[in-house]
Amino acid sequence: MRLEGKVAIVTGAGQGIGEAAARRMAAEGAKVVVSDLNEATGMAVAASIRDAGGEAQFVACDVSDRDGVKALIAATEKHYGRLDVLHNNAGVHETNFTDRAKSDELDEEVWDRVIGINLKGTWMCSKYAAPLLARSGGGSIVNAASIGGLIGYPMGGAYGPSKAGVVQLTRVMAIELAPNGTRVNCYAPGNTDTPMVQKYYSSAPPEQAAIVQQVLLGSHLIPRLARPEEIANVILFLASDESSAMTGSCVVVDNGTLAWRGIREGDS
Fold this sequence. Notes:
alpha/beta; seven-stranded parallel β-sheet; 7 strands
């Protein structure tokens, strides 16, 4: 198994890509610290991993809160004595908090919350995990970026910059943590079948839901949403020794979205 004997933290592991990554890591032999702000979903994921024969502990954490992050790292060391993988997955979008999500309408409080979780949270978890990773031999940090940090789209005025920041933070930390033996990489998923994406069409009337789904898939060369489990496969690769020659990289997993300019074969 690819993570046998290793300890991993997955933030935002209560649902979506984080949940899939936590399950995948546990299936590959890792002891997983399942972390989420939502205690009900986080505890359920940890319990399901244990029910499947894996080892997992739940630790509640708001990654934008310094004391909470420090407590998460301390709990990991207390439970398992080491840390080999940090997966900074926790993330939010401005539409989680408001329907006034255009950049010229966005409330400052919403901007701060998105940046605080997506970018500051990634930096802070990495900052406080770095010493424990170093003591365990270096390990791997895997950050969740997004194609929203590589290209622009409407109503992403906080989310997009936060994810672009994650890409650059990944490069900087890869340089700075290399002497400790710690590798730092990120991945940039496109539209994936998670609650964050499902909300755009699940609550809409059927005729509008179909239009939203068409828009979400319109840029995909592979004409469907990615599944969280597919993204988790990439995360596992970056977390494991199989990617031992990689650091400072951003792996795009977007069903082909960035490969073209919207002109399909056969279009006139």
